[in-house]
Amino acid sequence: MIRSELTEIRNIRQKISEKYDHDFSKLLEHYKELEVELRASGRYQFADSHSVKIGDDIDDILIFEKNNNQSGDVPGSVKKIN
Questions:
Q1: What's the domain range around 73?
Q2: Both 2 and 37 in a single domain?
């Protein structure tokens, strides 16, 4: 069962990759455009987190996220507004 699920996931990822000519920059641009559309729609609330830089200590980041997450949402998550 797990093997068939993994195969399905790989097939979906392959189709997505083919759709964007196996170019990660094109895929990333698509997701950035989608984010803009979703934000503009007002149907979703985005939980933005601070930017993480290479070299940041993961323990400091997790403590920051825990202390600054008043709503209980997962940092970087998206919540649909009814």
A1: 47-82
A2: yes
